[in-house]
Amino acid sequence: MNYKFLLIVLLLITTEVYPQKSYYNINDYISETGKSKLITVQLQELIDKCSLNGGGYIQFPAGEYLTGTIVLKDNTYRSTCGLN
Structural domain boundaries of the chain? Predict the structure, then answer.
């Protein structure tokens, strides 16, 4: 049996079953944040966009964010970065 062929087939199956997740940095999509700026609508739109594109991670750099109720969708995750 040709092992190279088998390896290629396995790699193709793996990348099809487990697609790479995208990363969405909140600062790239929402210009103003802070404890006095409500970002519920913009954040929900970003979550919806992430979910429609197959899912991914919403990255929240260190800072303050004011939001109301949001609904996480399938394959959408929250990720914090820049925390010490």
Answer: 21-81
Write down the residue that tokens 């790239």 correspond to.
28
Query: 58-84, pLDDT tens digit by residue?
Result: 999 888 899 999 998 988 888 887 554
Could you tell me whether strands 22-25 and 56-61 are parallel, antiparallel, or unpaired per DSSP bridges? parallel
Residue 2 above 80 pLDDT? no
Q: Where are the beta strands (DSSP E) in 1-84?
A: 22-25, 56-61, 76-81
Structure tokens given for 2: 């040709």
- Residue 61 and residue 26 in contact, taking contact as beta carbons nearer than 8 Å: yes
pLDDT band at 1 (very low <50, low <70, confident <90, very high): low
Helices (H) and strands (E) in the chain, counts: 3, 3
